[in-house]
Specification:
Blueprint (H helix, E strand, L loop, with lengths): L7 H24 L6 H14 L3 E2 L12 E4 L2 E3 L14 E10 L2 E10 L5 H18 L8 H12 L5 E2 L5 E3 L6 E5 L16 E4 L2 E3 L5 E3 L6 E3 L5 E3 L2 E4 L6 E2 L4
Antiparallel strand pairs: 1-4, 2-4, 3-12, 4-5, 6-10, 7-8, 7-9, 9-14, 10-13, 11-12, 14-15
Helix pairs in contact: 1-2, 3-4
Length: 250
């Protein structure tokens, strides 16, 4: 496993890439409302990325046909935007996207409520977000990779939610997906030792029901097998000798 440790110059480029992506997300969040299509979100996100002089890194990645993954309710990740998929009051929508700035990738995801959502949905979104923050407390130089996985698992376990096992976080830099893979569920081994300068995309995907997922016939959209709703929270982070730096916060 070759995990890249970034130079100071590379870290600055990653910071800028992530800052621009956070701005895109802030604007997409503001735009979400009942009655808009998932394709409307994709068109807006693509436009914002290009206005920053960047390239959407999801578009055509392994054949993916859009710039923004838009996943609604029981869609976990990789939902393909459509003009006929209209957001309704009470839906939850997960946006996952990234961009390339001067050769460096950023990646983040958030789940938002559409209008007024149920208490159950609010708690799922908030606890998924909290599991990320519990996980990155362990993302310090000298700790081990799976310390992050175990902390995310421990954060979610009391609620009885399903932690998706088929999809995991990853390293990121000059490629969207680099080593290492970062599971969100408990691991027996400790994994590699973390070093300052590593950049990681940590992304818990949590289902209200069971952990099991399946792929739709479009070969992209991942849904919960039991039809329960799912939340997703992801940031690109920088490992340092102290607390990690979250590069995609806004």
């Amino acid at each position: 496993m070759a995990v890249t440790v970034k130079s100071q110059r590379e870290i600055e480029l990653m910071r800028e890439s992530c800052k621009l992506l956070a701005d895109v997300f802030q604007n997409m969040e503001r735009a979400i409302h009942p009655g808009m299509s998932t394709m409307d979100i994709n068109i807006l996100g693509d436009k914002l990325i290009r206005e920053h002089g960047c390239i959407p890194n999801f578009l055509h990645y392994n054949g993916y046909p859009a710039s923004i993954c838009v996943s609604v309710n029981d869609e976990v990740v990789h939902g393909i935007p459509r003009r006929d998929h209209i957001l309704q009051e009470g839906d939850i929508v997960s946006l996952d996207a990234g961009l390339i700035y001067k050769g460096y990738h950023s990646d983040m995801a958030r789940t938002f409520g559409v209008g007024e959502i149920s208490e159950e949905a609010k708690l799922l979104i908030e606890r998924t977000r909290q599991s990320f923050f519990d996980g990155i407390k362990m993302a310090k130089a000298g700790n081990h990779l799976y310390d992050i996985s175990n902390a995310i698992n421990a954060s979610i376990k009391p609620y009885g939610y399903g932690i998706v096992r088929d999809l995991v976080g990853h390293g990121i830099g000059t490629s969207l997906h680099e080593d290492p893979q970062i599971p969100n569920f408990a691991q027996r081994r400790r994994g590699l030792k973390l070093q300052a300068g590593m950049t990681l995309a940590i992304e818990p995907m949590i289902n209200l029901g069971r952990a099991d997922v399946e792929w739709l016939d479009d070969d992209w959209t991942v849904v919960t097998e039991d039809g329960s709703i799912s939340a997703h929270y992801e940031n690109t982070i920088l490992v340092t000798d102290g607390d990690p730096e979250i590069l995609t916060l806004y």
